[in-house]
Amino acid sequence: MELRQLHCFEILAEELHFARAADRLGTTQSGVSRLIAGLEASLGGKLFNRAKRSSVSLTATGALFLPEARAILRQAERGETIGRRAARGEIGSLEIGFVASAAWGGTVSAMVRRYRAMAPGVEVRLREMETPRQLEEIAAGRLDLGFLRARADYPVEVKVTRLQLDAMHIALPEDHKLAAQAVLKPADLKGAKFIVPYFGEAAGFLVRIHTLGEAGGFTPEILPPVRDFLTVLTSVGAGLGVGLVPESAANFRIPGTMLRPVVGVELVSELMLASRRAEASPAVRQFLRLAGARG
What range(s) does the HTH lysR-type domain occupy (predicted)? Predict the structure, then answer.
């Protein structure tokens, strides 16, 4: 049983006339007869009464089969539509991870909003997680995309695209002696205790702090690492030390803290979009195209 046979059956059942059915189908009456005969052979029963001197009519079998044939045809049409939309990336789902600092600057929400405007049929689920875990989840196929901080190396299964450069500022307790200064020089931070996230070494934050120390003529004192930037800011607010954080942290105001830029040395962090290297999902590829056209 073929879809073209069912389509022919539906048209003939509507017209009850071989010539008119042939015209609608763009074929000959003999072509209609062959399709109907093939369908009847596969079903093992007659679908139409075809007396020479009377009009064509449905048999009892044909009348019972007609709604089923129509249901199959509509389901096939729907399946084809869904398949085409999925192939274009218009439907499906995306699991997207993000570091908190990407959310503070609005990058995640802005890009997802733009993507949703392009593909409203795709379900998007956002999951906050730090860079190392995002890379593990993407490599394992449990996460489709990840907004994360650049690092020295990545799993072989993962590729990254740079989205933006974020300036890094010094987070100070509001009662710190340097809080009155609008900008800081590297030498101002001599004697400060630096709080870093536990992924700081792989993401290059320790290197930046040591660069800061070299520019200021001192060796930085690094405290034991903490979980993430939020913990860095909370610790700074508690007066436990100072932190090097993305400028966007200013949008996530922690009581007792303030941010100050540093002049005389370049302190930046790359925000990356990570995905699987061999990505087959049309929805993911469409999001990556959007990221490539960003700005």
Answer: 1-59
Report the C-alpha dihedral over residues 153, 156, 157, 158, rounded to 10 degrees.
Answer: 20
Do the domains at 91-163+271-292 and 166-268 have one common CATH topology? yes
Does 31 score more than 70 pLDDT? yes
Task: List the one residue out of 177, 193, 176, 189 whose CA is nearest residue 262.
Answer: 189
**pLDDT tens-digit profile of 234-277?**
999 999 999 999 998 888 788 899 999 999 999 998 999 999 99
Domain boundaries, the chain: 3-87, 91-163+271-292, 166-268
- Produce one character per residue of 34-63: b if its CB has 16 or more CB atoms within 10 Å, e if not: ebbeebbeeeeeebbeeeeeeebebeeebe
Rg (CA), the chain: 33
Q: Please state, in angstroms and as integers, the Cα–Cα distance from residue 29 to each residue in 7, 22, 43, 165, 264, following that order.
A: 15, 5, 21, 69, 87
CATH of domain 3-87: 1.10.10.10
Q: Where are the beta strands (DSSP E) in 196-254?
A: 221-222, 242-246
Secondary structure of residue 131 in the 3-state scheme: helix
For residue 184, the 8-state DSSP code is B
Which CATH code fits 166-268?
Answer: 3.40.190.10
Contact predicate 249/127, CB 8 Å: no
